[in-house]
Amino acid sequence: MTEQARKNLHHNTAKMLSHVNYPMIQQQYLAQIYNIAPEYARGVYDLTTFKHKQPFEFSEVEAMSEQAPLFFKHVKFRPSQGNRLVGFAPDAPFYNV
To answer: What is the pTM of this model?
Structure first.
């Protein structure tokens, strides 16, 4: 990706993220893209205009990024350590209760 394309990507993502009214959604989105590339998340964070009164720190995004792969993944439906259901029928009931 060229430097100009990278700047455009950061600008366009930050512009759309600026329309979000809830800081938690912004934090979660930035945490997910932090796992893709930390410099991408930092670039978007720096360009985002926050609507709410108290913008959050980027260190909060870094801390949330550790749990980002588990956002909106209910524990009951996650694969267990013994059975990943990769193309095979489950050995037992597959809800983790």
So the answer is: 0.76
The DSSP line for 46-80 is: HHPPP-SSSPPPHHHHHHHTTTGGGTT--GGGSPP
- How far is 5 from 20, CA to CA, in rounded Å? 24
Q: What is the pLDDT of residues 48-82, one digit of tens each?
A: 988 887 789 999 999 999 988 888 877 777 766 66
Distances (CA, A) of 76 to 34, 64, 72, 80: 26, 21, 11, 9
Distances (CA, A) of 19 to 10, 22, 25, 93: 15, 9, 11, 43
Q: How far apart are CA 9 and CA 95, in angstroms?
A: 40
Per the CB < 8 A criterion, the answer to whether 18 and 48 are in contact is: yes
Say if CB 48 and CB 23 are below 8 A apart: no
